[in-house]
Every structure is written in structure tokens, then in C-alpha cells.
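User: I'm designing a mutation panel for PNPLA domain-containing protein and want to avoid disrupting the core. Could you give me a predicted structure to guide residue selection? Please restate the sequence first so the numbering is unambiguous.

Assistant: Good idea. Sequence first, for numbering, then the predicted C-alpha cells:
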Amino acid sequence: AKANLGLCASTGSQGAHPGARMALCSAEELDKPSAAREFFFAMAKEARRTILGPLSPKCSLMANIKTVLERMLPEDSYQLASGRLHISLTRVADGQNVIASEFSSKEELIQALLCSCFLPIYCGFIPPSYRGVRYVDGGFTGLQPVSSLEEAVITVSPFTGELDICPRDCPAIFFCFQIFNGSIQISIENLCRISYALFPPSTMVLNDIFSQGYQDTALFLYRNSKCHPKT
């Protein structure tokens, strides 16, 4: 998808929670356009196996994510990501936001990604660690972690808000509120998206979401003269 939109190599990518994994795909310029989609679809399929979804004791979400990352990432992934990928984390000890951007091994990169995905209770009770320190999802202290990047930043979110690339809902009722250094619009559509984030929908719905995200990105880039839409 990145190549089809005519995007060049990014100088830096930054994210929290799923955004960290998408930023990873961008920073490493993965040759397989479907790699990120396959990753999320595999996680969603695993979560739908039981009635309780990710909350079921039979669903080991973090272990599944780690397995897929180990299989998907090349051995030199940490070298490709260092200095280019910025992962937002929340330190458990004091609740401070920490940005991880240097990695000494593939395992260390994966651990940082696991920390960025960890939602207490939803993912378990004991947070994973990065370099011996326990962290949880960086979204708790910054939904849009962009302050450490000096270049012009394109903000992306799966929720409608005051961002560059995001779903565009009906503007008739448009009220945004600031939370965790991010912007989210109050709408029925966004509530539905939050439920999808916690309890993944069918593959058909996920495909629709993926297609809409592609269209939103293409439209933004076209309006900013970064690419031309393809028919």
C-alpha cells in the first residue's frame, strides 16, 4: 500500500499501541504490502475463537503477538528500526511517558512493541518489560506522541478527531475532546470503533476498515500533492 501511494522512505515513524506496529512497518519499509494487514487479521481471528474474545483465559493475546512478530520481522529488524522508529511507552513505576528509539537486538525491539501494546487487565495483570523496566501502552500518556520528532509530522488515528489522516464522520454533530495528548470526536461511529478495537469484528468488516484507511490516506496525500490517486 505504501508503494502504491507513491510514498518515499520515512525519516521517522512514531506510535503508541497498534500505531507502534504500523510505524514499524513504515520504518522498515516492508516489501510485503499485506504484511501489516495479515498481522492484524491473524490477531483478530485468534481473539474471535471464544465468546469472551481477548478476555477469555484461553486467549493468550500477548503470546500470540510475540509469536507473529518473531515470524514476521527479519533478524536485522532492530538495525532498520533504530533511530527511525519511536515507540511510546508508559513507565509503570511513575506513570511517565518514555520514547524507545534505539534497539540492540530483535528481541529488544519485540519487547518494546509488546510493552506498547499492553493494556492492564485486558492483556493481563503483569506488564512486560523493556531493558529491565516494566511499561504499559504509551497511549495512556500520549495518544499522538509527536513532540520528539523535529520533522513535519503527519498524524494518523483509527478514530475521528482533529488529525491529518483519520475516518471522516458526519460533521453535523462535531465535538472533539482532548485526552492523553490526543484528539477524539464524540460520535456513535467512534464508540463503535472502540468496541471493534477491544473485540475484533469479522474479516469482512476488517477489510472494509482497511480499505477506508487506504482511501483516507490517498485523499490526504492527494490534497497535499504527495501522490496522484490511482484508478
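For picking mutation sites, this is relevant: The longest strand covers residues 85-91. Confidence is low (pLDDT under 50) at residues 1-10.
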